[in-house]
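Long-time lurker. I teach an intro course on protein structure, and each term I like to show students one example going from raw sequence to a predicted 3D structure in token notation. This year I'd like something fresh instead of my usual example. Would anyone be willing to generate the tokens for the chain below so I can use it in lecture? Attribution to the forum is fine with me.
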Amino acid sequence: MHGQNCPGSLGLFRYKPSEAGTLKLVALAGRRFLQSRAGYAIRVVQRLQDSSGRAFLALIDQALFSSSSLVINALLARVLSPEDYGAFAVAFLIYLFCAGFHNAMLLEPMSVLGSSSYADRLHCYIRAQLRFHVHITTGLGLLLACAAGVLFLFPADKSLSRVLMAVAITLPILLLFWVARRFHYVEQNPAAAALSSGLYTGTAVGCVVALHAFGHLTSVTAFAALAAAAMVGSVRFLVGVRRETAQYAAIATYEVVRTNWNYGRWLLTSALLYPVSVQIQVFVAAGSLGLGAAGVLRAVQLPSIAMTQAIAAIGTLELPALSFAFGSGDLPLVRRRATQVTGTLVLLALAYEAVLILANHRIERLLYDGKFSDNAWLMASFGIAPVFSAYLTGRGTALRAIRKPQFDLAMNLITAPFGLASAFAFVHWWGISGAVASNLATAALSAMVLAYFYRNALQISSLAVVASGHGSPILAERS
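-- Reply from a regular --
Happy to contribute to a lecture. Here you go:
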């Protein structure tokens, strides 16, 4: 028996049966522990990959949607007369103003309430929101149609009246695509949003190029092309909503109107004031100097708008990290990260401004084939605006992360009257150059106001944590 394996022996070493069983249990427990830790690590990595993947898809979606407007605006500025493009530019800004109202009253409430209060009946909820969308856009369209009719009575150029009527007719379809994109984010499917934006961009650019090739591209047909693209981009969304709602009870329209109003009424003021701060100069130039001047102003502003939109997209990607740091009670990390983000964005904007200073004439020839060569230097002047926008984005993202969005409203309440007054005064004194100066002065004032709010907001959050004794600012606010 000596040297042989027997029950309770492992190889050359002999153990009692009870000891061998204990070793097996320990080994099994250790293996399960390692497997559980490995599984946890894998799940964490998968969540991080999913999160980063969704963020990347959201960035792609935003890039596609924003680039379509910039490409179409640049093409129209290149091929249309300054007056016709000025009419399109004014009408397009009015369309964006309506989109801001639509966003405050429908899209933002839908984003917040849809995934929380109606998660079990999401498609029925979206269908009720679509009915509300029809009511909003029909009302806005009727107002725009009345404005177009009034403008048509004046003996001046009728181009603005015609293109404004085109906006009134196509507005429900144009903003339907905004609903479709936002719905995909509510259902946590940014891939579908990116696909819809890809279809929209491809159709819009293709239609505009085809219209130009056949000699039918005007400011009116351009909006028809955008409407066709919006319809193509919304088809998948409409089919999905119609298919999924058959098995659920309908949600009354008045219910979503009431809940949307209770949430969105606080956003309306900012939605109405923000365009006054940043785009009122185009309207003042159109009224004081003519639609041609408004077209020139908008055309030389497009390169800086492209950079501003890129900065805003980067800021959106940074918001979750700052929010997590704030929720963890690490205010010093919020400060450091916000400073790093702001500094990086400002340096990026300064580098872009350097390119515009050195190559504004080359960029003008590339975009417009020398059509606005006399005003190419204004591209470099407008290039200062993204620098202020970079600072506003970095600090503004931090304010949203620490749950102080009311400072954005306060900033607009201060800067909008200045933007309006400076636009009329500067355009009267210096023409198109005065419009650029008004835009930059308003952006600089916004940066100074937000810097003051940012410093005070962080001090208040720090004092709240110290006074409550909680490690998290969120718990400090609740205590």
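Some talking points for your students: Confidence is low (pLDDT under 50) at residues 1-17, 37-49, 465-479. Residues 53-268 form one domain.
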